[in-house]
Write a structure and sequence with these properties.
Elements lengths: L82 H14 L5 H13 L4
């Protein structure tokens, strides 16, 4: 059996005693765990976002529910893609100069002059 990690923050749930119950929360971020987004059957591309055909629809996929088909998914946590953020930061550094570069110091002094912070 694969180790379980919180669907929201990725924290280890190794200290949690199986089975996961409706009131269980992540010890790190306090996210409810008996939720659709932490279930093996959750699939955003499927009807009702669930591959279990007879399960009743749950509107809020991030709140605890009473679904009897719930099965924890050890692969539910997906880290956020930071590549777009890193690319944007690199672009800003190229445009305005990186931290500690000579252009950074002169740009900072120009800003200080502009706003009267000599």
């Amino acid at each position: 059996m694969e180790a379980l990690h919180c669907w929201r923050c990725g924290a280890s749930l190794k200290d949690l005693t199986p089975p996961i119950e409706r009131r269980d929360e992540c010890p790190a971020c306090r996210a409810q765990l008996y939720v659709c987004k932490f279930c093996e059957f959750h699939d955003p591309k499927a009807a009702k976002q669930c591959r279990e055909p007879v399960a009743e629809e749950v509107k809020d996929k991030e709140r605890a529910n009473f679904c009897g088909y719930f099965k924890p998914n050890p692969r539910a946590y997906v880290p956020a893609d930071s590549s777009a953020s890193n690319k944007a930061k690199a672009g800003l550094e190229a445009l305005f100069g990186g931290t500690g570069s000579p252009s950074d110091t002169s740009a900072r002094s120009e800003l200080d002059k502009l706003f009267g912070k000599d």
